[in-house]
Design brief:
Blueprint (H helix, E strand, L loop, with lengths): L12 H4 L22 E14 L6 E13 L5 E7 L6 E3 L2 E3 L14 E2 L7 H9 L3 E5 L2 H6 L7 H18 L16 E11 L1 H15 L9 E7 L13 E7 L10 H8 L10 E6 L35 H19 L7 H5 L16 H4 E6 L5 E5 L6 E4 L3 E5 L19 E6 L4 E5 L10 E8 L13 E7 L4 E5 L21 E6 L11 E8 L4 E11 L1
Parallel strand pairs: 3-7, 3-8, 8-9, 9-10, 10-11
Antiparallel strand pairs: 1-2, 2-7, 4-5, 4-6, 11-12, 13-23, 14-17, 15-16, 16-23, 17-22, 18-21, 18-23, 19-20, 19-22
Helix pairs in contact: 2-7, 4-5
């Protein structure tokens, strides 16, 4: 699936005028720092297991092999498991081929197995140094045979389950070869996190449901968090019952249509009575491959000035910079939701910009490098405006409709729109106001006012490089406090470029401390007021959140 990529905002002078500032929060720890544990890396081979595609009933062997990153100390340690995506499995005459697992790579002429599972050592070693037992597993047979059925998602879920089974065995008895007794007493399967890349991302998503209904082995109730890295979404997954996040690389030349956004939108409200969160991270200048050090090719091959490295206005990151950003996001996510390290709250929720270790180039780019959409558990949010969920009023808008994009991006004014949530379309040529009543008037125990938005770049009413909104909070006495939204987000900037542009809904997080002078225990209304002469935006999920 190597077609084209999304265009990114360019840091022109006009745009820099509205670069958001970083909200004042206590700084989270830098996830890039090395922890106190020394780390031992062990390559293992536990033989093969048979996996089955549920639709074609094709059954074939997959090698249970990979790399373990084991912290020093007695343990037990929380378990993280990584799963790579679809990549060539053997190097044959310098060319990657999909020709099977390690044991079946051609021997004449000599070939070598592509160990994609080794490509996340930078992330695994960092997390192991902080006391997490990490396993990165192989899926090369599946890569060679996932051309039919569900594109291998179910088989990948089976491999994850059986790899967890092995860790459970090795916690009490010696494992094969170099594993020996290295894991005895060190495996805590009551705290599990999964990361999957590309088709591996859909594999970890599928594992959620597979684990819930599994009949060929234990079900892991300790599954806490799942992270999908540039995932596919062929099976229309809707994650539930775990903390879940997705990273969308905005110069992805492989999964160019950013399918992981679909899973985020489907999964937003699947846990109405449980305490699980959702997060979406759209990352400027990143491609599909370079989160894996084995995948050295640049998958973006288009000509768009924002993503083409040869262009002077490109915002592309280097491969090392891309991994720095990926580490900051993924390590923070797992340390918060698997390890319970609450110091990472601000980073995972988008209330704080990335640390300096993940900020390439000028410091002004850091607040706009990652756009975070975050949704708290149902008990920790008050949803004010969402089509079909909450009633709102609007005055002064020339356009005031709702739309629901399809998975191909059609259905809203700007095509393509990659966020498939039902959303408001607001257009104006004169001052206009969008108003929402507050059903629970006491929001003093919550942390922020949030919403998701994107600029309809093809609409001629968007005559400026960026939009802005006055966000007004009113209490029962009539007192109001007003904040400019553009100071807290890059989501109100129109994406420049050509036909590759795609609209995303990205999050705005405004701390309630910014609304000084109103009684947060008695809030009655929130308003969004236009600040430019004309414009058109998409809007969803206006809420107060914890």
């Amino acid at each position: 699936m190597r077609l084209r990529a999304l265009v990114l905002p360019l840091l022109t002078a006009a745009v820099l005028a509205v670069v958001p500032t970083t909200p004042a929060t206590a700084a989270a720890p830098d996830p890039a720092t090395t922890g106190s544990h020394s780390v031992t890396t062990i390559e293992y081979d536990a033989g093969t297991t048979l996996v089955t595609d549920p639709s074609t009933l094709l059954t074939y062997p997959e090698q249970l092999e990979g790399a373990l990153y084991v912290p020093s100390g007695p343990g037990p340690f929380p378990v993280l498991m990584f799963l790579h995506g679809r990549h060539g499995t053997c190097v044959y005459g310098g060319i990657l081929e999909f020709v099977g697992p390690r044991a079946t790579c051609p021997e004449s002429p000599a070939t070598s197995n592509v160990a994609s599972y080794r490509g996340y050592a930078y992330l695994a070693t960092n997390l192991a140094s902080h006391g997490y037992l990490v396993a990165s597993v192989n899926a090369n047979s599946i890569n060679s045979l996932d051309w039919a059925g569900d594109a291998g998602a179910e088989e990948r879920a089976q491999v994850l389950a059986r790899s967890l089974d092995k860790l459970g065995e090795w916690n009490t008895t010696a494992g094969p070869g170099a594993v020996g007794t290295a894991l005895v007493g060190k495996v805590d399967l009551s705290r599990i996190g999964l990361m999957g890349h590309s088709r591996g991302g859909e594999g970890v998503d599928r594992f959620i449901e597979y684990n819930r209904t599994r009949t060929d082995g234990p079900r892991y109730t300790g599954l806490k968090a799942v992270f999908a890295l540039a995932p596919t979404d062929f099976g229309a997954e809707a994650p539930t019952g775990v903390h879940w996040a997705v990273l969308l690389p905005l110069c992805d030349g492989d999964v160019y249509d950013l399918q992981g956004a679909h899973a985020y939108d489907r999964g937003r409200f699947t846990d109405p009575a449980t305490a699980f969160t959702r997060a979406q991270y759209t990352v400027t200048g990143t491609n599909h491959n370079w989160f894996n050090t084995v995948w050295t090719g640049d998958d973006y091959a288009g000509s768009d000035p924002a993503c083409n490295k040869a262009n002077a206005s490109s915002v592309r990151l280097t491969d090392a910079e891309q991994r720095d950003v990926g580490l900051a996001i993924m390590a923070s996510f797992f340390r918060r939701w698997v390890g319970g390290e609450t110091a990472f709250d601000a980073l995972v929720k988008g209330a704080e910009a990335l640390p300096a270790s993940a900020c390439p180039g000028a410091a002004t780019t850091c607040p706009t490098l990652v756009r975070t959409s975050y949704l708290a558990p149902a008990a920790d949010r008050v949803l004010l405006a969402q089509p079909g969920v909450a009633t709102v009023s609007a005055t002064g808008f020339a356009t005031n409709t709702t739309c629901t994009p399809t998975t191909t991006g059609t259905g809203c004014p700007t095509n393509p729109t990659r966020s498939i949530a039902t959303q408001h379309t607001l257009g104006w040529t004169a001052p206009a106001t969008f108003s929402a009543a507050v059903p629970a008037t006491n929001v003093s125990g919550l942390a922020a006012l949030t919403f998701r938005t994107g600029v309809n770049y093809n609409d001629v009413r968007n005559t400026t490089a960026a939009q802005d909104l006055d966000v007004v909070v009113r209490d029962a006495t009539g007192a109001t406090a007003t904040v400019n939204a553009a100071a807290y987000t890059a989501a109100l900037r129109k994406p420049p470029g050509g036909v590759d542009r795609e609209l995303m809904l990205d999050g705005v997080w405004i701390p309630l401390s910014a609304f000084a002078g109103v009684d947060l225990a008695n809030v009655t209304q929130v308003q969004l007021k236009t600040r430019t002469a004309s414009g058109s935006i998409q809007l969803a999920e206006l809420a107060f959140q914890k």
